[in-house]
Specification:
9-stranded mixed beta sheet; TIM Barrel; 9 strands; 243 residues; 9 helices; alpha/beta
């Protein structure tokens, strides 16, 4: 079965990475919802993809330089449609609380702190306090951060975003580091890569596919999951294919 992974919620229908976008994806019945988490100036955690608030709010500036109280004053909806005026940037806890079981969460960590583990430990604290550890996949490109996380919470599932030009090389490096889940860029995809993932007892979620043609091709190759900005289209494709 191929998983329908709603990238930043359902950005076709609501402003990305906001509670309305997550609620829309939940209503579709997706398998997993992906969102990005960043640490703020006061140590709190906010859900947003960009390092600045310029694109998706009514203000400008670096997200990491703001406190949660400051972030909560931003309008994160009117840029998308006036119907969403007043929509707020969610905290990590608010995002997790908005996604009910059995839907899983693809939590993409964006902050890198080489000097200490404060960011990683704060993320783990929020996950355990919310009681969602069994529904979370933690994704990061920074191996030292993932190593600290795995040491502190080995029971969670982790995915390393390897930045390599070849799919099989990515698979081999991830396996050597002890990761079971992969998230390859679409440029790494091939029938051979998907077959190798299955043969090695691993799981791969491709980033990304937004057209029916791409979705059908990746499903035919046997991909484990698809991150998409159009989860309604992928839901229809999966139903039509019985996948």
């Amino acid at each position: 079965m191929t998983l329908n992974i709603a990238h930043r919620g359902n950005p076709d229908e609501a402003p990305e990475s906001t509670l309305p976008a997550f609620e829309s994806a939940v209503q579709l019945g997706v398998d997993m919802i992906e969102f990005d988490v960043q640490m703020l100036a006061d140590g709190e955690l906010a859900v947003m993809h960009d390092p600045t608030v310029d694109r998706c709010t009514n203000r400008s500036g670096a997200l990491a330089a703001m406190t949660l109280a400051e972030v909560k004053k931003l309008d994160a909806g009117s840029w998308f449609d006036r119907r969403f005026t007043g929509t707020r940037v969610p905290s990590l806890r608010e995002a997790m609380d908005a996604i009910p079981p059995p839907i899983e969460m693809n939590v993409h960590l964006k902050t890198v702190r080489d000097e200490d583990d404060r960011y990683e430990m704060r993320v783990l604290e929020e996950i355990h306090d919310a009681g969602v550890a069994d529904r979370v996949l933690i994704v990061h490109h920074h191996l030292p951060s993932l190593e600290r996380l795995r040491e502190a919470a080995p029971e969670l599932e982790y995915c390393w975003l390897g930045r390599v030009p070849d799919g099989l090389e990515y698979l081999c490096q991830a396996a050597a580091e002890g990761f079971r889940v992969l998230q390859p860029n679409r440029g790494l995809m091939s029938p051979e890569f998907c077959a190798a993932v299955r043969e090695n007892g691993m799981h791969a979620n491709v980033f990304w596919a937004d057209t029916r043609q791409d979705m059908e091709q990746f499903i035919a190759w046997g991909i484990g999951g698809i991150l998409t900005n159009r989860p309604a289209i992928l839901q229809a494709v999966l139903r039509s294919l019985g996948a």
